[in-house]
Amino acid sequence: MPVAESGPPTPRRFPALLRQRAASFGHALRGVGAALRTEVHLWFHAAATVAVVALGLYCGLARWEWVAVVLSVGAVWCAELVNTAVEAVVDLVSPQYHPLAGRAKDVAAGAVLVMALAAAVVGVVVFGPRLWGQ
Ligand SMILES: Nc1ncnc2c1ncn2[C@@H]1O[C@H](COP(=O)(O)OP(=O)(O)OP(=O)(O)O)[C@@H](O)[C@H]1O
């Protein structure tokens, strides 16, 4: 058990801070990699992301359109990763059936659904006129 320190925290040296930030970045990348290995949904998102970027390049999207598309794609990835994290924590703390565990998973899945629907609307608004005319 670590002994509680008294007084203000000593400011860490810059190289140590940089090393810590680099390590945190590595942990985050490891998290994305682990999710990609275990979640089939994410392979679908990866394929959809490649398709959307290719379509955007083909259509010659304007700058604001790229902003909307990139934010939408990123938000869906973000929601899916958080959903994966929630599922892992729920499975850890409640391997047996519990109504709250089920609710937590359902709500996390709902977040993905809401974001995916919003992204679909963005897709229709951005790509619709180009693919099907004004
Ligand atoms: N421990 C639990 N207690 C109660 N209900 C659960 C529990 N685990 C899962 N559920 C219910 O089963 C549903 C499916 O859970 P599951 O863990 O299979 O996720 P999933 O939606 O299949 O996602 P994925 O395919 O990414 O694993 C949940 O949304 C929830 O309603």
Automatic annotation (TrEMBL):
It comes from the Bacteria. Keywords: ATP-binding, Cell membrane, Kinase, Lipid biosynthesis, Lipid metabolism, Magnesium, Membrane, Metal-binding, Nucleotide-binding, Phospholipid biosynthesis, Phospholipid metabolism, Transferase, Transmembrane, Transmembrane helix. It is a multi-pass membrane protein. ATP binds at residues 39, 87, 105-106. GO terms for cellular component: plasma membrane. The active site is at 80 (proton acceptor). One of its GO terms (molecular function) is metal ion binding. Pfam families: DAGK_prokar. One of its GO terms (biological process) is phospholipid biosynthetic process. Substrate binds at residue 80. Its cofactor is Mg(2+). A divalent metal cation binds at residues 39, 87. Mn(2+), Zn(2+), Cd(2+) and Co(2+) support activity to lesser extents. The chain crosses the membrane at residues 42-59, 66-86, 106-128. Belongs to the bacterial diacylglycerol kinase family. This is Diacylglycerol kinase family protein.
